[in-house]
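Margin note from the TA: students keep mixing up input and output lines. Inputs are the sequences; the output is the structure of the whole complex. Example:
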Amino acid sequence: MPGAIYAEGLVKTFGDVRALDGVDIDVPEGTVLGLLGPNGAGKTTTVRVLTTLMQPDSGRAEVAGLDVLKYPNEVRRSIGLSGQFAAVDEYLTGRENLQMVGQLYQLSSRDAKRRAAELLERFNLAEAADRTAKTYSGGMRRRLDLAAALVVSPPVMFMDEPTTGLDPRNRQQLWEVIQELVAGGTTLLLTTQYLEEADHLADTIAVVDHGKVIARGTSDQLKDQTGGDVVEVVVHDREHIGTAEEVLRRLGDGETTLVEHTRKLSVPAAGGAKLLAEVIRELDSHGIEIDDIGLRRPTLDDVFISLTGHATEEAAPAGTAGGTDTTGGAAASAAPAKNEETQ
Amino acid sequence: MSITAQGTAPRRAPQPSGERITFAQSMRDSLVVAKRNLLRMLRIPEVVIFGLIQPIMFVVLFSYIFGGSINIPGAGLDAGAYREFLMGGIFAQTVTFATAGASAGIAEDMQKGIIDRFRSLPMARGAVLTGRTFADLAQTAVILLVLAIVAFLVGWRINDGVLNALAAFGLLLLFGYAFTWIGALIGLSVRSPEAATSGGLVWLFPLTFISVAFVPSENMPGWLQPVAEWNPFSAIVLAVRELFGNLPPGYQAPDAWPMQHPALASALCSVAIIALFRTLAVRKYKRATG
């Protein structure tokens, strides 16, 4: 039986660009799928098709058991949409926005009022409830937008880059809300460019690039695909880099990589902790002073790079849409460094 | 307090019934959207204020500058008679300016994320447009009221009874409402709100000036007279003048059919515009994305 969100062979072209090139998705009820990929990979287009905003050129999609193309209006009753393009009216107050959305979800005006008050309270907007959204900060607007998507507690939610452009504190808050939502049984499709975010929130991850799903699985499965743990060493003296690299090559289970300016060396470590201990002993016997050493699981950055040959941020040199404030997360800042390591 | 509400929506989607959205739902959705647009108008009052300044300026400029120099059939070069004559034209021109408001408002909505919000909601498809036209209708009614008061102050009078006057205002609102649907289509057809504002206005000038609104058609060159007399805008102007009793006693309407039956002609024209442009606009809206 297909899941709460199901798509098969979605194709959508804009002129010469194949935005979607045969996307298949299956999200079981009550789980979270993270759609991970760089800008222009086809994440937003996928969401637009699944939320009835756009018709695919070919392919089939079902949401909450309903064919998206045949029963768009019934589908709309069962979904909530939030993210980079779903929005609020900035000349309306937070309360007015939520009441309007409630009424357009066909709630009675009394229910819409009650629900708006509840959500404003829940999303820490009670104090700002009767100010126009124009006066809200970026984080507040995003919370209002998410609240609007939750007015009828839809069984299926879509969030398109919910935290793009938010500072770390606001991002953390939004993550908590999303986790609570999912704990309540909502099926969620979430798109993100942040590997860390997919890792944190999603049960399964589909990696998208050039309109195709190029890999899927749990975060652990994807990490295993890139091959186990990595030993990372930061040597104190630049002169010792050569010797240290020699040691790693001899003991490790694969190619070593070096980031020159941070003096960071790494090597795949199938032996895990045992290898780590050996490396420490060996470096010590050579008298090499080290600033930092550790065993780390591959991050989704590593996964993405090994799958696509480029980092997530690479396709988006101009930064993310609307992301004028700090993009915060470790994933975003880590990506360029990772990119260097592979070279 | 939990994020999920009790009893607001079924956990499982309703079975597809293939149901059509009812007229009642469509009306309710339109009124919800209309309320949203009216709230916006209250919070950006400049738009309404400029909407008022222009016709008031025209009343003052036209009546004092052209007042004594335009020959009104049946009254001659009389400033008082011209003022009476003028108001029908100003009233009618004012209601057509609602076009620009509708086109700019819809163009702006289409550019912003709010349209995706609307399109992802289980609401009647046409309600975003219909709601906008309702709000513009309400705005037009307010502007007409203020304009009537100003006109009264400069000497314009209702001379043919309250019922006829109400009929005149009714015809004006219907005509203005019809034009907001032209505005809606323009708003959906242009790429920016700025283009929508000028695109919504620019064609209104020839439409409203090549008519009997400001100058009797008898004063125009011969080849232009039939154009002015068959211009649908002339029908509403003349209908309003008749219903307000603003025509000089000896006035003879031109022979063209719309000039002989102006109230009927303008009502028919308004209904035809609504039928045509509403259909086109709603269709365009549905296709606008996707």
